[in-house]
Amino acid sequence: MRILVSFKVTPDFEALRESDWVAAADDAADGVQTRYVRRVLNCFDESALELALRLSEALAGAGVTASLDAVSVGGRDVEPYLKTLFALGYERADRVHTDAGLDLAPGVTAALIAGYVRRMDRSDLVMLGCRSGPGDGGTVPFRLAEALGWPCLTQVIEVEPLPDARLRVTCIADDGLLRATLRLPCVLAVGNAVVSRLRVPTLTDRLARRDRHIQVHRAADLGVDVDEELRRQTCTLAGVDRIDRARAGVVIGGATPRDKARALISGQLGTVIRNP
Hints:
Strands 9-8-7-10-6-1-4-5-11 form a nine-stranded mixed sheet, with helices on both faces. The protein has helices spanning 18-26, 43-61, 79-88, 106-121, 140-148, 203-208, 226-231, 257-266; strands at 2-7, 9-11, 39-41, 67-73, 92-97, 125-129, 152-162, 166-173, 176-183, 186-190, 216-218, 247-251, 271-275. The chain contains eight helices and 13 strands. The protein is of the alpha/beta class. It folds into two domains: 2-231, Rossmann fold, CATH 3.40.50; 244-276, no CATH class.
């Protein structure tokens, strides 16, 4: 079994200042500036990376040979994460380079991953997060599955190996949990899995695999014309608005609890305030 996990490194939007969102709202064409914000793993992709590690270990325990690979579409800021995956036991960790901004272009991202699967990796199980951050509509897994002609399950929270190269997959459905038995190949979109954190490699593991080489692929190597794919996109950034998360509240006056209770019952409330 050949397992591939596609992941994305995103800016830590929680660390942005309020003024950055205000500036972006005034000039939406430039988007939100995130150059100074640290990069983090998308939370759903992080779960997919850990689930794939556990699946690989379970397969090895059952005597099944499995390879574990990872790929990310992005710039050089993803390479520290790729080196971490080497230290954790991933056999291959590649990067697909593109200079184009793909936050609002899920079709292009899916085409690049599909090209990588066909031309470079030949995997028969692809795992990735169900969403990748702001600007993503959660369609990349489905577009990827359509491009490959494979079935796709979303909101996956657990993957277990079965005999005859089958998998038992647990997903979150509208009315509870859904457990399905799948044959490969397939695409699994990981959702709110219980396993939400990627394990941390030891220093010994990092030193033992520090010479592993990260391969960088261009879109042309994968048979994808990014400019042409972008021209087909119908989604453009029209504006950026901050979400007002302030809460309204009331301070009830009174010197004692009895006075406050009387004011509350009588409707003679105090000052209305708004707290962020």
